Amino acid sequence: MSSTTRAPTVPPTMRAWVRPRRGPARSALELVTGYPTPAVPMGMSPDVLIRVSHVSLQFSTEMLMKTLPNLPLIGPWVPEVELSGEVVAAGEGAPAEVRDLGSHVVAFQNIPSAVVMGRGVLAEYVRLPGCQVAHIDAGVDMASASGINGAGSTALKMIRTAGVREGHTVLVNGASGSVGSVLVQLCKLRGAYVVGVASGGNEAMVRGLGVDEFVDYRKHDPLPAYLAQQYGDKPFDFVLDCVGTQALFVNSPAYLKAKGAVVNIGGFEGICVTVRNMLLNSWLPTWLGGVPRRYIMFSTPPTRDDAVYLARLVEEGRLRIPVDSVFDIEDAVCAYERIATKRARGKVVVKMHGG
Question: Of 174, 138, 137, nearest to 158 (Cα)?
């Protein structure tokens, strides 16, 4: 069967979660059962049609659902950006390694399409450009693989931006979360000495990821005071914050080297507070009360090159993407509520097909 023809198992319609109104997931999301299946890529199209296995949810999605208006003429707003699945059809212009039918892949939707246009991936089938799809071995767990692009690309950009290398000592705040758990492993692969921060209930998990020291933020509250006492005479090269704790940056001169930096990707304090803090932390001069340490925050769109690199690490057993929980497609709202607790240990994933 040609890769440019429709596989007979692809139905004309599918199930997809859509957001017809603003609000939290419980009131804003609806499961549509007659959503049109994307068209099959034909001829020299660079696109790939994927039967979605699992979708890895983002913490920021519910904030976007509460904030962004529905734009006219856009159509139903489908959330989420990253997935694992198998190839159903592909155009001849797609990369050769993702054209074979049945191949297991990880993929992502670009941010403008997912956020602005609402063309997310929380659906049973998606069609994406081949440059956003990467092959992965069939033996890799698909629930775990679905988190490679978001958590993996973000963690990778954090250590590259900071310049983490062998001999550095880094603090990872939120070491049990979806990004933090990957970040710990990538730092260790680079030869860094890692101190991981999480709640005491997650200590075994975080130590299992390879941290050299563990800090229970609940036991040592306030955390900055403890870090100053414990690490003031051996300050960190970098503080990698996956939570977005403003106090961690404000007090950082007590435990962060003068040439070091706080790299933050967390937004747990809310969008408005996070944006305000980012502006103040980045631009307020020290003579007006600014903190005399570098503060770095950036967007982290996935890339195919990162996906390919991370997939190889996973296949080789050098990296694992921890999964907190897996919910059936019908229970996606419960999955968002799990994320909202801020206690998830790794990725929260929705399984899109049964069996």
Answer: 174
Residue 34 CB burial class (10 angstroms; 0-12, 13-18, ≥19): exposed
Q: Which domain holds residue 24?
A: 13-147+321-351
Residue 36 β-bridge partners? 13
Same domain, 101 and 164: no
CA 171/CA 208 separation, integer angstroms: 16
| Four-point Cα dihedral 263, 267, 268, 271, nearest 10 | 150
**Beta-strand relationship, 104-108 and 169-173:** unpaired
Give the pair of three-digit tokens for residue 330. Answer: 């019908």
Mean pLDDT by 10 residues, the chain (355 residues): 53 95 91 95 96 94 82 81 96 95 95 84 97 95 95 94 96 95 97 97 96 97 97 98 93 97 83 78 81 88 90 95 96 96 92 80
According to DSSP, residue 119 is labeled: B
Residues 98 and 165 in one domain: no
**pTM of the entire predicted model:** 0.90
Q: Which two tokens stand for residue 50?
A: 């994927």
